[in-house]
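ok so for the tutorial part 2 we go from a plain amino acid sequence to predicted structure tokens. step 1 is just haveing the sequence, like this:
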Amino acid sequence: MSKTQLFLLHFAGGNSYSFQFLLPFLQEFEVIPLELPGRGRRIREPLIRDFDEAAEDLFLQIRDRLNHDRFALYGHSMGAYLGLRIVAMLEQVNKYPAWLFVSGNAGPGTLPKRNRYLFSKPDFIEELRRLGGVPAELLENEDLLGFYLPIIRADFEIVEKEDRDTEPVIKTPVFVMMGNRETTVDKISNWSNFTSASFKQEIFDGGHFFIRQHAGRVARIIKDVLSETEAVDL
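step 2 — the prediction. this is what the tokens look like for a chain of 234 residues:
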């Protein structure tokens, strides 16, 4: 039997290598890390700054790589927002993921309007320090910053330029994970408003990038939930 395909959607500033820490725990799956243009293997392509365009880009990647009906999506932070839209687009063409897994994000409508992509360079760097996830040596290296900052600014613009308050309700079940030190963790159940199917949640000890400290547990959740669903399907 073919392995379940698991498509990974990176966070702002990420690329197809951003989930390397998770891959050793996901060997039961055909893991497919995706990436937007302007970084990683797509470094020569122009950056995207529009949410709809970013969702379309990733949707087409998934559509073209689906090889059977058993698949799921997992997105962190920006990838969670995009995951919701992409699942809605997949459902419109009668492709239904087993689950949408999201983390580091309480869902549409939970964050105050912020245009951090317009911050001055010092303020933007300080915001990246606050969020964590970016190595300190990168933030202190001017050459690396010159390459990295345009990428992450473009990704912040994808999320922040337009309100994400209204998104479609999907038929795919959703499992959301957040760290207990994230500012919107108290709104984690907001995701239940965006699925007409099952909704589950789990809170971890940690901040926005808790997934790096809890890679094994995150992977275990994905494996257990998909295994339970497969047993029901059978």
